[in-house]
């Protein structure tokens, strides 16, 4: 009986680990900025560039927790450098992402759209008009190498969690299956063993 309880505990812990892996946040999220704090928002500080000679007071914004678009809406990404040497990332959205982005920007003209990367707020440009082309450009406080790394991660994720997380998911799911099969086998075996006289 102790073995069954132990294996059931292992199976439960494995399921919790699988849930944590699959719940990993997307690499990039697009969220709305709200004027005042609400139960559905969180304060976030805009990341400042490290190489800026003048460090202005960091801007703190109230960002809605719900993402309007995320990594799953990104078809591909390319890192580039502007005329003045500012790195940025060009993003092409999927068909569904393009439709959602057009709708989001159409409904929120005049508001700011927060761009959250790896849980950090990199920029929050104001929406001036509906963006219907299915493309976006992200500039922020990152270096050329960071922009290239982010673009590679977005391309490598194919809109889902990182491949390493997917491998972890399958390994943990296999552990859960093995643990559950073992528990069932031990339970059946104990039923067949006649009680001691």
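Q: What amino acid sequence fits the structure above?
A:
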């Amino acid at each position: 009986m102790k073995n069954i309880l132990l294996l059931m505990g292992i199976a439960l812990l494995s399921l919790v680990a699988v849930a944590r892996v699959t719940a990993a946040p997307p690499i990039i999220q697009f969220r709305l900025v709200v004027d005042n704090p609400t139960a559905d928002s969180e304060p976030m500080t805009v990341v400042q560039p490290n190489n800026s000679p003048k460090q202005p007071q960091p801007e703190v914004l109230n960002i809605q927790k719900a993402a309007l678009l995320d990594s799953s809406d990104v078809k591909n990404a390319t890192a580039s450098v502007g005329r003045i040497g500012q790195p940025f990332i060009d993003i092409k959205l999927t068909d569904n992402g393009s439709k959602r982005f057009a709708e989001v920007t159409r409904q929120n003209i005049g508001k700011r759209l927060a761009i959250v990367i790896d849980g950090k707020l990199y920029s929050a440009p104001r929406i001036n008009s509906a963006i219907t082309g299915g493309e976006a450009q992200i500039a922020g406080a990152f270096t050329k190498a960071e922009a290239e790394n982010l673009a590679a991660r977005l391309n490598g994720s194919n809109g889902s969690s990182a491949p390493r997380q997917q491998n972890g998911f399958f390994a943990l799911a296999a552990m859960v299956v093995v643990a559950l099969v073992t528990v069932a086998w031990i339970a059946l075996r104990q039923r067949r063993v006649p009680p001691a006289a």
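Q: And what stands out in the fold?
A: Residues 163-192 form the longest helix (30 residues).
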